[in-house]
Structure formats: structure tokens, C-alpha cells
Amino acid sequence: MARYGRNVPRYTSYPTAPQFSPEVDGETYARWLSELAPGAHASLYLHVPFCAELCIYCGCNTSVARRYTPVAAYAERLRAEIARVAAFIPGRLKVSHLHWGGGTPTLLSAEDMTALMADIRTHFDVEPDAELAIEVDPRVLSPEMVTALAAAGLTRASLGVQDFDPAVQEAIGRHQSFEETAHAAKALRAAGISSLNLDLIYGLPHQTVASVLNSVQTALALDPDRIAVFGYAHVPWMKKHQNLIPEASLPGPAERLAQAEAITDLLTAKGFVAIGLDHFARPTDAMARRAKAGTLHRNFQGYTTDDAPVLLGFGASAIGALPQGYVQNLPATPAWHNAMAEGRLPIARGRALTAEDRLRRDVIERIMCDGGVDLDALLARHRFPAGTCDAELKRLAAMEADGLVVRRGARLAVPPEAHAFTRTVAAVFDAYLPPPDDDAGPRRHAAAV
Questions:
Q1: Which of 31, 126, 162, 364 has the smallest CB count inside 10 Å?
Q2: How buried is residue 334: exposed, middle or buried, by Cβ count under 10 Å (0-12/13-18/19+)?
């Protein structure tokens, strides 16, 4: 199976971010916003690109803030961006999902968080049953922030853990005790934020099957509703600080696969439902119910129950998705500040969607969410003729022979034993990804397994 371990996208969008271009700019975004229907459903993503310290495994757009001054200035600009974007929309949108990501959103002061959440409710209609989620670093979660989050109506928190093993924590520059994590979980639940997710990572330096299973067992003691288990993306050509991790300390592809499979076996034995590539949820959780119904979705935050046709991104590097296409804010915080100071929408690039993009996006999303797809049904829905995907079906023949995919006519399914290769199967339908034997150009993605 080694020949299927090529670097492929995670498919949190299609086309993927490398296909975005500066041809989509702030003027394009303003026009797209003005074309939205009043009262349409939307989700919001707010990015906070600051952390108290840099974890050397991290692939996020973030920087270390030693003082609060730059964070406060960023929060002020973020409030301005919310107002600026809302001004282009012809009517108030209904917000069904909101996600704070980073970086470390809980590095904001309680006062700034309160003001930002108030601004969101000023410019948008937040629905009573909306899911309002935030990523939390338990090491910098203050009692004041917990109170502010509860008062602002936050409903879900995602606690970053990664691994509980002290040796692994030392190797990745993230020291976090179980007690710190448990204290954060207890405080959030006591404040009424009862839905908790834990983020874990496999494939980190010095991890073994035994050590990752021990971390999962430890995490289960916190009784989370969901657990996300991501494969570490070692991309030092993109994230220079990852060069501090010796490649010899990293598990190889076979060991990574063994770790992923062992975690899946343990969590499913404990009653969790395996969802897509890397999520697990209690059977009663909305995500598990959506997965069972075949109505799960995937966006820039990963697997989601979010059906909204509009995603508005705020903050440096944030990506938005509208019916017309994708937009991404300027990734460098100073450049984002400058655009805001000049009164512009801080767009760096984007992508207008074609009819074929929309078809392929749906095909890839169903493979990523359901582990399979009915091509004939999607071709009919998108009004494409039968046979449109014949070339892709021909390329899947080798994978079919190797057991990575099962084909019955135009119905495709990734069998459970090939689950780890779901991205590889989905990549066959990516019209922009170079063929496997084409090594030209920069590496942009992490290994599939």
C-alpha cells in the first residue's frame, strides 16, 4: 500500500486553497456579499492568530503574543471587520453556527470576547438553537473567560490536548497536565458549556501504539461528547519551526496507520461512532446522527453538521465560502491590519466556482463524509451527462484491485479496512491535483496516511 501514501489534500474545500488566486479580491467579495439573499442562513468563523507560546508541531496561522497590546488591537480591528462585512449584505443573515479558532481564541480578554460576541448579535440574527463553539487551550483558560463565554451563549468547547505522554509533550513543546485539562473541562461544564470535544494527534514524535492508546484512555476519563484524532501533518517546507522535530523521531507510515487503527478500535469499543476520517462521537450526538443519515458536511473546520450555504470568515487568514465561491483574508496579520485601516475588505485571494467544481466538490465531500458516493445520483443532480466521470472510474481500477475501493456500477465505497486511504480515493476526482507520477512543483500537502 506504500504507493498510495502520496501527499494529498485534506479536502476541507474543493477546489483546495492552492487553487485560490488574487483574481478574487475585495471588490469581488463585496459584490458576492451584496448578492446574498436577506434572511439566508450563515455560519461564522472568527480567527485569532495568537498563542501564549508556539507548539512546534503546529501548522496553524499563529504567532506568540508576549503582551496583550497586539491582541487588543487585533480585537478592535476584528470588530470593525464584522461591521464592514455586514454593511455589504442587503439584509440580516441568520446564524446557525459560529466557530472561534486559532491560534488561541481564549487568549482574548473576557471584555474583548464579550464585546465581539455582542457585535455579532448586533449585525446578525443568531438563532436560539445555534451551535456556538470555541477552541480552548486549557493552559490559558481564565475563570473570567469561562464566565464571559457562558454569558455570550457559547454551547460547545473544543479542548486542545494532542497527547498526554510527557516525552511526547517535551518533543512537541507543549506541556499540559491531565489536571489542567480536567480543571478546564470541569469549569466549562459548571458554567453551562456542557458539550465538550477533545483534540488528539497521532503520528507525533516518539509516539507508539501503546502510548497513543494510553492518551486516549486518559482522555476518556473526561467524558467528552466528541473526540477528534488528527494525523500529524509534518510540512517543514511550509512551517519552518517543524524543522525542530527530528524526522527520525517520527513514526513511519506503517506505524502511523497502526496508531490510527488502534485508536479507532478502542474508541468504537467504548461506544463512540467513527465519523469520516478522524472524528468520533457519542451515538446521541448530532454529528453521529448526521453521519448515520448521510447528511454530514465538511468545511474548513473539519466535519460539521452545518448546512448553511454561507460561511463568513473574519480575521487574518480566515476563509469564507459563499454560493459564488471562496475568499481568503490576508494571512499576515500586519497586512490584514493595513487593509482594514485603509477601509478595504482584507481579501488576499479566492476562487469563483464553476459548475464542474460544484459537482466534484459534492463527489469529494460524500466520499470524505460517507466513505462512498453514488456518482449517477450526483451527476443527475448537477445536470451532467452519464459518463462524465468515466476517466476517474478507469483510474480507480488499480485501487479496486488492491481493495481500497469497492465499485458496483457507479456506486463507490471505501471498505472499512481501507478507511485510512479515503483521501487517496477522493483525490482521484480532484481535477487540479497533479497525477501521482508528477513530482514537479512545490509540495503543498501532508501524506495521506
A1: 31
A2: exposed
**What is the CB-side half-sphere exposure of residue 430 using CA atoms within 13 A?**
25
The rounded distance, in Å, linking the Cα atoms of 225 and 245 is 32
Closest to 449 (Cα-Cα) out of 307, 252, 266, 168:
252
pTM: 0.93
Residue ranges of the chain with per-residue pLDDT less than 50: 439-442
DSSP assigned state of 435: P
> 3-class DSSP state for residue 62?
coil
Residue 162 sits at the vertex; the CA angle it makes with 157 and 165, to the nearest 5 degrees, is 130
Q: Give yes or no for a contact between 11 and 426, defined as CB atoms under 8 angstroms apart.
A: yes
Burial class (CB in 10 A: 0-12, 13-18, 19+), 51: buried
Nearest to 135 by CA among 174, 91, 184: 184
First CA to last CA across the chain, in angstroms? 10
Please state, rounded to an integer, the average pLDDT across all residues of the chain.
94
DSSP readout, 335-361? HHHHHHHTT---EEEEEEPPHHHHHHH
- Please give the C-alpha separations between residue 334 and each of 27, 167, 313, in angstroms, as whole numbers: 20, 36, 17
**For residue 132, how far is the Cα from the chain centroid?**
15
Cell numbers given for 393 = 472510474
3-state secondary structure of 381: helix
Name the region of 103 (left: φ>0; alpha: ψ -120 to 50; beta: rest): left
Per-residue model confidence as pLDDT tens digits over 168-190: 999 999 999 999 999 999 999 99
The half-sphere exposure of 86 on its side-chain side, counting CA atoms within 13 A, is 19
- Let me know: does 276 contact 303? Beta carbons within 8 Å: yes
Nearest Cα to Cα of residue 310 among 24, 23, 117, 34: 34
C-alpha R_g of the chain: 21
